[in-house]
Each structure stands twice: as structure tokens, then as C-alpha cells.
Design a protein that fits this description.
Layout (H helix, E strand, L loop, with lengths): L1 H35 L10 H7 L6 H9 L6 H10 L4 H9 L3 H13 L1
Helix pairs in contact: 1-6, 2-3
């Protein structure tokens, strides 16, 4: 029974990490686009802008938590963040599904250092 519980925990950790990596890649794309337009666009390129653009009570702390890879986020929070950045769930899933074990492992090591 303990083995099953630890396997579930590990699989959940991987989902949390993959979600954080995917969100970071999406935000990075927005930051790259924003820098090419000399900041003259309304692109959502920061945690503050994500929270402000969410049309909800999403806080910067909640956004930060989703990007950290350390804590669980609700599906509603993830969807709000994705839509606030101007993406669709389809965009999220395309990035999420292409993540490699190497990327996940590298990110996990970085998260553990902090």
C-alpha cells in the first residue's frame, strides 16, 4: 500500500513540475515578443500583469506559486493564468506534451536548490 501512495505522490510531483515548466515557456515567449516590440505592446509578460489581466481575484503570490513547481495549483488557476497570457489550453497542452524527461529532471534539480 505504501508503494502505491509514493508512486501517486511522485506522479503528482511530475505533473506539478511539467505545469511550471510549461507556464514558464509560455511566459518566456511573451517576454521575447515584448522585447522585440520595445515594450510598446500589451503583451502580458510578468506575474503582475498575469494577475491584473486575469479578470479575477488571482494574486501575484498565486501566480508565483504556479510557476514555482513546488506546490499544487487548481485547474481554474492554471486556466486563468494561461488565458491571461493570451494563450489557449491547446497551446499549453502542445508544450506540456513535448517536455522531455531531461527538461523535467533539470528543472527539478533547480527547484530543489532553492
Amino acid at each position: 500500500m505504501c508503494l502505491i501512495a509514493s508512486m501517486i505522490k511522485e506522479s503528482e510531483k511530475i505533473i506539478i513540475l511539467k505545469t511550471a515548466i510549461t507556464l514558464r515557456k509560455m511566459l518566456s515567449k511573451n517576454k521575447s515578443y515584448s522585447s522585440k516590440t520595445d515594450g510598446n505592446s500589451d503583451v502580458v509578460n510578468s506575474y503582475d500583469k498575469i494577475a491584473a489581466n486575469s479578470n479575477s481575484e488571482l494574486t501575484k503570490a498565486t501566480v508565483n506559486s504556479a510557476f514555482s513547481g513546488k506546490k499544487r495549483s487548481t485547474m481554474a488557476t492554471i486556466v486563468l493564468i494561461i488565458e491571461s497570457m493570451g494563450y489557449l489550453m491547446k497551446d499549453f497542452s502542445e508544450i506540456y506534451d513535448k517536455l522531455s524527461e531531461k527538461e523535467i529532471s533539470k528543472f527539478r534539480d533547480e527547484v530543489m536548490k532553492k
